[in-house]
Hints:
The complex is a heterodimer of chains A (409) and B (111). By secondary structure, chain A is of the alpha/beta class. Chain A is built from 12 helices and 15 strands. Helix content of chain A is 38%, strand content 22%. In chain A, strand 7 and strand 8 form a beta hairpin. In chain B, 40% of the residues lie in helices and 32% in strands.
Amino acid sequence: MTTSAGKALSEPTxxxxxxxxxxxxxxxxxxxxxxxxxxTSASNGPDALDRLDEATPDLMLLDVSMPGMGGLDVLDRxxxxxxxxAVVMTTAFGTERVAIDTLRRGADDYLRKPFxxxxxxxxxxxxxxxxxxxxxxxELQRRIEIELRQAAxxxxxxxxxxxxxxxxxxxxxxxxxxxxxxxxFYDWQLQPNGMLSFTLGDVMGKGMPAALLMTTVxxxxxxxxxxxxxxxxxxxVQHALFSDLERSRGFVTLFHARLDxxxxxxxxxDAGHGLAFxxxxxxxxxxxGPRGVPLGIVEDTEYQEGHFCLAPGDALVVYSDGLPDxxxxxxxxxxxxxxxxxxxxxxxxxxxxLTQLAEAGTSRHDDLSLLVVRHTQRPHAGMPRGSPLTIDxxxxxxxxxxxKGEANR
Amino acid sequence: xxxxxxxxxxxxxxxxxxxxxxxxxxxxxxxxxxxxxxxGRRWFVVDLGDVTYVDSSGLGALISGLKMxxxxxxxxxxxxxxxxxxxxxxxxxxxxxxxxxxxxxxALADH
Lengths: 409, 111
């Protein structure tokens, strides 16, 4: 990466000397030149500000007491304008109080007249070094911020676009890292057979290390999820990534599933995730099993698939620990979360309610992600709850809103 | 988080933790366990009775310790897990990987 080297990497060399006494001004300039600095001068406050407008030197030696605008006024202006300059105040009437006052107002150091040559040299050297360090720090900080912003942007783009329109189903999700990037993700893909593969994952830890593993896991899963059932896909990913996860001492919890929209059936594997439940239309919360351990812990784990059918009005809610952990004082289990969801009428509304719940928490340290798949069809008279819809019942329902895609972002 | 280590025998170590075992404190635990494995210890009891909260990084440190201990022919047991940790171990199915004990003494006795 190229960077604007400029001031950040060169040693501070230019000094503006501000003193109303021409003799002292000359004396300071002479000393600075002998120390190798490039020197310009000003004889009063306004003159100094004009010079600073033209070009900002690295350092300024600024007399506290000058007629008209004093050195402290100049200092205030310089600091208010956030100029990149180190300021050493000079005065003949030095008291401790004046020294403290100048430092508090943003001066870098303080020199008392008459100058001791050694002290003068030491203060100039120290100030120049500090300025250089400060500039390097700022440059590093800036680079890190740019990189993190770009990483956050890339990670946000790795989340899938709006979910595919699946007649009778709506899907909504939310993902928000605690820092700029994080280890949580969700994904979905429409398989060629018309089924929807979807995943919510949580890589251990947070920040950049978690984000690096998150992109790896997501890519591996994405490459197999299109043509495989949940267990087969997860086993491929485990096989491909176990040694990577082991070496990086990471692990990831995954809820990886497939929705068959024709049968309203969800087939899933839960690799140590556990944070998933069915929110039934009547408000009941039903936990899910079986579960296996997170990916990256036990090699060759056999993951068992689970199955269930979503009845009209039922929603599958999958989330990461950023939700329960946001409320350290309350136990947010499935029943409690179900009560918060209440009678939310859409997948989007469920996601919104749960996001608000997390945001209202007092201890938000962890990445937060949510994924909701909801069966939108209203119960049809005579149709048993939870049973797969037959072709006939679908046809009967076409006159209502079966064919209306209600997918939501 | 404070770690106090109390050595039971030359191969066994009891590590007592308090406070939060989270992103910040878990790497210290991991380092501590690695150091002890390097000096020949392989049976660990991690006493979590005074730990109020364990996040996923904390779990990661415990899993690292468990792997290191088992690779050396030993084990890592969890003593006095709190409710929050019990819930997490159950949700993540890691209760099938870790053995937990109600007291440090029971964990030490079960060799």
